[in-house]
TrEMBL record:
Pfam families recorded: DJ-1_PfpI (PF01965), HTH_18 (PF12833)
UniProt protein name: Transcriptional regulator GlxA family with amidase domain
Signal peptide range in chain numbering: none
InterPro entries cross-referenced by the UniProt entry: Class_I_gatase-like, DJ-1/PfpI, Homeodomain-like_sf, HTH_AraC, INH-QAR
Record SUPFAM superfamilies: Class I glutamine amidotransferase-like, Homeodomain-like
Amino acid sequence: MKHISLLIPEGESSLSNIEASYKIFTTVNQALAREGKPPLFKIQLVGLSKQTHVTNGLFTIQPGLTIREVKKTDLVIIPAVHGDAEKVVADNRPLAEWIARQYAQGAEIVSLCIGAFILASSGLLKGKNCTTHWLSAAEFSRMFPDVNVAPYKILTDEAGIYTSGGAYSSLNLLLYLVEKFAGRDMAILASKIFEIDIDRHSQSPFIMFRGQKEHEDEPVKKAQEYIEDNFRDKITVNQLAGMLALSRRSLERRFKRATSNTVIEYIQRVKIEAAKKGFETSRKNINEIMYEIGYSDNKAFRGVFKKLTGLSPVDYKNKYAQA
């Protein structure tokens, strides 16, 4: 039987993450029991203390065990914890150290959504790939520059460490784990019981590009503002560099460091975000939106749109356009 430590960190933990994790693995045990088979999972709530407030103090969860009482476990699940990320990490330092010790003893580790901040603070993600909520990706990269964050992914699996994207994409990671430990048939059954799309692989359709302006490089901010105000026009890197009295090489280097995008990528993202809004809020056809955002090549537009959203313009419009 696989022992699962479902953590209840200090702070405003996600009740939905905690309940979904408990329910899905418990449901697998119940399905096995109906088949006359023994349970696969023993799930216990584990915290720093025996009483933890979640969801801004609205609810209280009483973990059955503290980390001091769990000497060895097989699978550790870290739910999202909302609030100031620096404070969340500081408040849960003993939990992160315990997670690292469990991993050293052979446990596998799971983080759901922004639970990745606690996982990264353990040092276990250094040099590895992970995902988290796309809204928190920039702050995550700032706090943990030695981790390869991929905010477009629904989940990652590397060296016994699993991470999920934002919010309810955690359900896809839980199903992935059910499939790994209990088989495809059981994962499909769970997906049907909980009505979860089992084979969703990307957060890209949900990402809203807001630009990364939490930096102190004023020339780069001016370049970003110029791009956002003039994205319908043809903008070149040389044009921006001349406007800011910088060399092209210097602008590209500083822009990438400040925004995590090249200048060209930033221009593309601003254009595609405008296209997405056009599809969502108007009845204009694809060519009309394409021309409005400054594209004249249908093939190029479709290629960039699919790359950044994971959907073709037609599929995105069909999915999100006004009825």
